[in-house]
């Protein structure tokens, strides 16, 4: 009788372990990505909204298509490759793009897989491939020299930009309101958060920083409640390349607006230096 009870207990324990493993797998595959990638597909405005000339860009990434806008600034020899945050799509980034245009720069902004008009589904691998494909478009199709390209990434886009910056050398890199990893962000809210829950979407920025050779500007706000300030300070600390830190004010999604001239001038000073003042040409 005791042997039978023991067997039943073993079966229950095995089933429980299987249940836990399946639950973790399902969370990592479906729930966590949906929390991370808050994407929208409807493009409710284009650069026409501000009467800017632009070109639709479509590049092949594996068997999917990645869509973006190339927004040239007249007579500019330099361009910003813009990687946006986790929510919405490129239609939400026109105001940020306008800042770079005021500095005399062309911009290539794009959507990750599953965002806007880009097909497929987002993942860390896909986002990083999207960025590299757009870099290739700029250097091969548009003929930009790497030394005339500035990489910019905000929030999730900063993690994507950091990854790209380990693969290419460019004029400079701007990481704004970026995280050490998605796991660190999750653990800021839930200290018990297991690493397995983020499998395939960890975005370990902190492990890639030492590989970046180009100059980097790190931007972060102490009032950021989404990605806490220590992420930006630690990113800055871990970088071994030429680097600068710009402290802004305001929460995660409004800092660049509220900070105003200090933000714009911080970008201007960094960009003019790494591009050897060519933004004024």
Plain-language structure description:
The strands form 2 sheets. An 8-stranded mixed beta sheet has the order 2-3-6-4-7-8-9-10, sandwiched between helices. Strands 1-5 form a two-stranded parallel sheet. The chain has one domain: Rossmann fold (3-Layer(aba) Sandwich), CATH 3.40.50. It has 8 helices and 10 strands. The protein starts with a helix and ends in a 7-residue tail after the last helix. α6 links the parallel β9 and β10. It is globular and about 85 Å long. About 40% of the residues lie in helices and about 20% in strands. With about 280 residues, the chain is an alpha/beta fold.
CATH class designation: Alpha Beta
Number of domains: 1
The CATH homologous superfamily corresponds to: Alpha/Beta hydrolase fold, catalytic domain
Percent of residues in beta strands?
15-25%
Helices, by number, come to: 8
Biggest sheet record: 8 strands, mixed
Topology, please?
Blueprint: H1 2-36, E1 38-39, E2 55-61, E3 64-71, E4 79-83, E5 87-88, H2 94-102, E6 106-110, H3 124-141, E7 149-154, H4 156-165, E8 172-176, H5 182-189, E9 216-220, H6 229-238, E10 243-247, H7 255-258, H8 261-274
Parallel strand pairs: 1-5, 4-6, 4-7, 7-8, 8-9, 9-10
Antiparallel strand pairs: 2-3, 3-6
Helix pairs in contact: 3-4
